[in-house]
């Protein structure tokens, strides 16, 4: 629909946009007039502080109207740098301005003409100076503003140039152009789209900015949530002849068999899952829980319910090490109930693989734990009723889909030890209902975390030796594998050699990293669990799920190279038993921001709080590594900050799908176009 207003036209139609400028804009993701209109400012420069030169205080950021007294002079300095010196005057005094490598100033600024300067003033030796000020020709009185938009730029584009292009693009927008249904705009007292985009780019005051942001953030979250609700509705469509499992039992028999008491949070989450399974609809739920909160016991209880109802369960883990650990745990929990558990990984022998495949096909195996090997074409189930995916952010949507397609609308339970607030979860997990295990089992000891520089490594490893002498175990983690990866990092191979012949020469060390064969990694972990290895020098392959109750130490080299949530996950590898445990973060970074981040980990054991800090710092894309989470890139909304608007957008999107709003064809087309654009064309059929 935007084409009829010219908004879908390429940016080259805008006056002043040549081939070079097109290239610069495309680097920012701007390809059409509408892209440019919706390329929102990252902030604003407040130029309301206008002063005469004589009234400017040292260090003050001000705006000044002044005349260029003499032509610009060029000064060459060492290294090829060119300085451009300018003298500006007004009726109160004079000011010297200096710019670096801006040769155009010499020809564009004319002595005797008045300009607007904006920057920080410094008083030196009785003179006032400005370094690298913004210098603009004086605008007509009716075109002046005290709030100038500041955009994210790329080389070749200046703020002044981009502002001019945005102003030109806005002339293509007709006043009647609207992207939300009129009833929603009225119900939530929102600005019209035309007013909102004009005010967000060129506001007259802070009220303009606030009202424009409210409208545009609401719209972005509404469109996002509407798309997600539609996807969820599509997943919940159930063929009457292919109804999902209806449980005929509960989990109480399993729960009472455990040698420990479940927390109230674990029981609540199990009840939520069993309620889903028994509802006649397909369960699509994620269970979030901090490190050590007992997610595996919850998964085992749900698997028990499914298997006891005559169904089969597929349990997918991201690594072979973790798959083997889950197999051992689940087999121990469920085999007493006659539930047969099997393991299927890439290293499973052909004979064992053939036996497992036959048992899955005839239904004699009720639960199969495995890696990506579970989604290969040769794997088929007689009655797959439940799919469990551990550490869900490590699997793409398509991988989960490939496994669920092996059954007839099986229930889906995904687990994550990366805690995320509900506001973010609503978006990132899309159509999944969210359960949170927000309570740790009784007796779980707090891990003492220390932050040190490498000049204290001798003391740290002397302490490690004393711990290992008691029969305890440790992990030492590095971010790189060998010298070919990153020379500046402490590498796992070089550190292994150093420790083996140095601080830990009296102990049994093994090396573990992702480039090793699966059989080699499995051998290392088996030896570690058996107590035949004192310390493992490893990459982040040990990040998820590996548990040894004797492991009391984890040392993380080059800790500044890890995200906060990742450090928290790594820390969770110790403290799994009754022994006092320690985490040592080692870094030589002198960067204040980096050290502040690491101090946040040192002083905080709450995974949710660390996640919020990490998420704000890195954003969803970097936070989850690849874009497997499927969350579209947001232009203006912040999922952690704009909570109240998210709640309103959630309400409006639910009303939409409950047919509270009656949309005309034009409004439907606008929404289809908006959703399609936000989801990169993946949901164009969202409104039928």
List keywords for this structure.
688 residues; alpha/beta; DNA polymerase, domain 1; OB fold (Dihydrolipoamide Acetyltransferase, E2P); Rossmann fold; 4 domains; seven-stranded parallel β-sheet; six-stranded parallel β-sheet; 22 helices; disordered C terminus
User: What is the C-alpha radius of gyration, as a whole number of Å?
Assistant: 31 Å
Task: Based on the coordinates given, report the CATH architecture of the largest domain.
Answer: 3-Layer(aba) Sandwich
CATH class of the largest domain: Alpha Beta
List segments where confidence is low: pLDDT < 50 over at least 5 consecutive residues: 1-5, 621-630, 681-688
Distance between the termini: 16 Å
In terms of quaternary structure, the protein is: single chain
The percentage of residues in β strands lies in 15-25%
Label the structural class.
Answer: alpha/beta
* Number of discrete domains: 4
What is the total tally of β strands?
22
Number of helices: 22
User: What is the CATH topology of the largest domain?
Assistant: Rossmann fold
What does this structure look like?
This protein has 688 residues and is of the alpha/beta class. 37% of the residues lie in helices and 18% in strands. It contains 22 helices and 22 strands. The strands form four sheets. Strands 12-13-11-14-15-10-16 form a seven-stranded parallel β-sheet, with helices on both faces. Strands 17-22-21-18-20-19 form a six-stranded parallel β-sheet, with helices on both faces. A five-stranded mixed barrel has the order 2-4-5-7-6. α7 crosses α21 and α9 packs parallel to α10. The N terminus and C terminus are likely disordered.
